[in-house]
Amino acid sequence: MRVVPLLAVLLLAACAQPLDAGADGPPDDGAVLAGRTFLSTAVVRDGKPYELFRGTRLRLTLDGKGHVGAAAGCNSMGGDADLSGGRLRMTGDVSMTEMGCDPKLHEQDALVSGFLQAGPRWELAGDVLTLRTDTMEVTLQDQESADPDRPLTGTRWQVDTVLDGQSAGSVPAGATAFLEFADGKVQGHTGCNNLGGTAVLAEKTIAFADIFTTKMACADDVDKLERAVLATLKGDVTWQVTADRLTLTGPDGHGLQLRAAQK
To answer: Where is the DUF306 domain (predicted)?
Structure first.
C-alpha cells in the first residue's frame, strides 16, 4: 500500500527534471557562441542588400562571460548581453571608443550599435550565425573558417591605419610602410626609410628595442607616417591578430593597424 505512492512520487519527480542538454546547454542559450568571433558575409536592410563601407566587415566577438563586442570598421563597441532564448539582449549601455574616422564609418558604427541594442534574434547553423530584427538581417561566418588568423611571424604586415589614441588616420597615397617579424627581430619600411631592430614576442606583447632606420629625407606627410611607425615600436607593445589584421597598441595609446599583404 505504501510502495506504490512512493514509486509514483519518484517517477513524477524524474519526469519533472529538465532534459540534459549537455555541457553546451540548449541550442539557443548562447553557450554555442562562447569564445567565438564571427565576420559578416551579407547585410540586408529594409529587405534590400546593404553595402558596407569599402574594405570593411562587421566583426562580432562573444567571450562566453556575458560580454559581446563588435567592430564595424572604425570604433570598437560592446557591453554585457543575455543570449538566452535565441535572442541577443544588451543588458546595459553599449560603450564605444571615440576615434575619428570617415563620416561614413561613423554612420556604420551607429547602425551596428543600434542593431545590437534592438535585441536581434539569433540562429546558428553550422558555422553561420544569422542575426535578425524587423528591419535588418546580418549573416556572419565563424572567423576560423571564413578568414583564419594569419601567423604573426613570416607575414608581411602593411600599415593602413595610424592610431593616436583618439583618432584614426589613413596612410598617405603612394606610401607603403610594412613590418616583418622573424627570429626575435623586426624589419620593414617606415614609408620612407628601411628599419630594423629587436622584437621579442610574447603571448600578448612584443618588446621592441634598438630600432634603427636609414636616413633618407621624406615629404611632410610621409615623414608624419614614419614618426607614427617609430613612435609605436617602443618598449612593450600589445599585439592582436584577427584574420588578416594586426593591431599594435603602445602603452600611451599610439598604435598601428596593419593588414597582411597579398603574396
So the answer is: 55-141, 150-255
